[in-house]
Write a structure and sequence with these properties.
Length: 156
């Protein structure tokens, strides 16, 4: 788990509470991500790391937009481990889940276009034509890779 100091944690919770307690978001506690982590835990770690790096590196990214996009980047709401294997490469989970997550986020939370780009581009360069178009999208893309790699390598 990514640790924040008490004032950072308080601000993070203030930004995240409208999402993390929502019944649809809570469903992610039942879905596995990488290693032993749930999609809920993974998304919280990506959001916390993005929040922390934004402040540490003085990137001046809008914190609400950043935390919202980071929390919802994997809001696809299905067990990808049970997905069909015999599908064309570009229909596999790694390629398609950002778009499913974005549709779910728009439907559930009514997110704006900039936040949609954070979600849709977080798998770049795998999603070759969906490139991060703002600093928040680039940061979430990098933080997701850092967290996913740690979860996979450490199997945590």
């Amino acid at each position: 788990m990514i640790k924040l100091n008490s004032s950072e944690e308080s601000r993070f919770r203030e930004l995240a509470e409208g999402i993390i307690f929502h019944p649809e978001f809570q469903k992610m506690k039942k879905l596995k991500a990488h290693g032993k982590k749930t999609v809920f835990e993974h998304s919280m770690d990506v959001a916390r790391l993005s929040f922390k790096w934004n402040r540490s590196l003085k990137l001046n990214i809008d914190e609400k937009e950043l935390v919202t996009g980071a929390l919802l980047h994997d809001f696809y709401l299905y067990d990808w481990h049970k997905a069909r294997i015999n599908v064309p490469l570009f229909k596999m989970h790694g390629y398609t889940h950002p778009f499913t997550a974005c549709k779910n986020a728009v439907r559930t939370f009514g997110i704006d276009k900039r936040t949609q780009n954070i979600i849709k581009s977080h798998m770049w360069p795998l999603t070759l034509r969906t490139i991060p178009s703002n600093k928040a999208a680039w940061l979430v893309c990098m933080c997701d890779k850092a967290i996913a790699t740690a979860e996979t390598v450490k199997r945590i």
